Amino acid sequence: MASSRSLAADRGTPQDRARLGYRYVLQLAIVFALYFGAGKLGLAIPFTSSNVSPIWPAAGIAVAAVLIWGFQVAPAIAFAAFLVNFLTPIPTSASVAIGLGNASSAVVAGYLLRRSSDFQTSLPRLRDVLKLVTVAAVLTTTLAAFVGVTALTLTHTKAWSGYGSAWRIWWLGDAMGVLVVAPLLLTGRDLISVYRGWRLLEASVLLIAILVTSAAIFGGGSSPR
User: Fold this and answer.
1) Is the pTM of this model over 0.85?
2) Is 224 inside a domain boundary?
3) Tens-place pLDDT, residues 40-73
4) DSSP for the chain?
């Protein structure tokens, strides 16, 4: 009898289950919106060719989302990555493969980092940063690069002769996205607590200056990714 009550308590009330369901849907929506927006930004960066971008900030969003909310947000990553590429002139099969490859890369990174018992997602120590760089930025991004470039070459979007250079650009773009974006999202709460008052204003002005400068340097037209 006691075990039945315990099982019912573990399952929670219908209101609790509904609240968890709403929270999960909200998480999926947030991850999808952030990844899709970052993906469109990555496609708009010059020097892109056949959906291979030298900077892919969406990769950092994907890794951070998995580390913060768990593997259950993978469908949002996969669908957002698929839709970003589906809206470009490449075959649908390539878009599907890219979506699955990008999501798998983030999931594998999250799995390997979570298996490390002493890894802390807030990155308070140097060894946490080094693990994020080694695993998420250097190692697992090779999976997305392999799946994405292979899909593009198999669908004749890119030539096999350019496979090596396309793979390196894809890997570098994902690695840069993880290095730049993931730490900002993982340490966002601590940064907000530090930057208050005049520090917040100073950080905002600096961010605007960086964005304006980047737009002036890299905003001279775009080519299809």
Assistant:
1) no
2) no
3) 999 888 777 778 988 899 999 999 999 999 999 9
4) -HHHHHHHHHH--HHHHHHHHHHHHHHHHHHHHHHHHHHHHHHHSTT-BTTB-S--THHHHHHHHHHHH-GGGHHHHHHHHHHHHHTSSS-HHHHHHHHHHHHHHHHHHHHHHHHSTT--TT--SHHHHHHIIIIIIIITHHHHHHHHHHHHHHTTSS-GGGHHHHHHHHHHHHHHHHHHHHHHHHTHHHHHHHS-THHHHHHHHHHHHHHHHHHHHH-S-----
